[in-house]
């Protein structure tokens, strides 16, 4: 029998503090007391199990999965990578969800009032399962930056939101992926509040020309580490995952 690996100690100093005045909404919604870790029930840690039969054929293709009379407008991308544990082993059958703004920087959401137009052929969300080696991939368009009400002339850089599920709905991790070379990263309050710059850099996906489709689609690689010393930063688990 192979010996199971011990969990590596997490370096919690890399996480941004919950109370960060430069990120204005954290002033009112950040906890004032230390967070408590609650034990999950048996039903929460054992199910439900997500399977490929629950996914549609276009769930991992945001260029086509909302199309009415054409394809989504924007720079065509492939985003791919691996979901791994702290030893580098791939984590199979992880449900990966993703959502984003359109090429103009607007979300298909009733509360998004940005003046950029909606794309009638772009819904902005999808999902996929990792394979036996923890690999995942999806097609999309590059999201646009957009202004937000933080301080005067605050803009969010282009980003894609990710949600990963374990074996149950209570085992959920959320993060964001940014793009290599984006000049707005240096001005973004959310990205800038990560105290460890090496940890912040793990949220930035490098371009991957080897995975790009010539004359068609650029590719970016975004690997996600679930825990350990080089864990990806998860915005809903600042206390550790």
Give an overview of the whole structure:
The protein has 241 residues and is mainly beta. The chain has one domain: Sandwich (Protocatechuate 3,4-Dioxygenase, subunit A). Helix content is 7%, strand content 22%. It has four helices and eleven strands; from the N terminus they run H-H-E-E-E-E-E-E-E-E-H-H-E-E-E. The protein has a five-stranded mixed sheet with strand order 3-2-7-8-9, with no helix packed on it. Strands 1, 4, 10 and 11 form a four-stranded mixed sheet that branches. It has a two-stranded antiparallel sheet with strand order 5-6. The chain is globular, with a radius of gyration of 18 Å.
The CATH superfamily is: Aromatic compound dioxygenase
By helix and strand content, what is the structural category? mainly beta
Strand content: 15-25%
Q: Estimate the helix proportion, in percent.
A: under 10%
CATH topology label: Protocatechuate 3,4-Dioxygenase, subunit A
Q: Which radius of gyration do the C-alpha atoms yield?
A: 18 Å
Low-confidence stretches: none
Q: Count up the domains.
A: 1
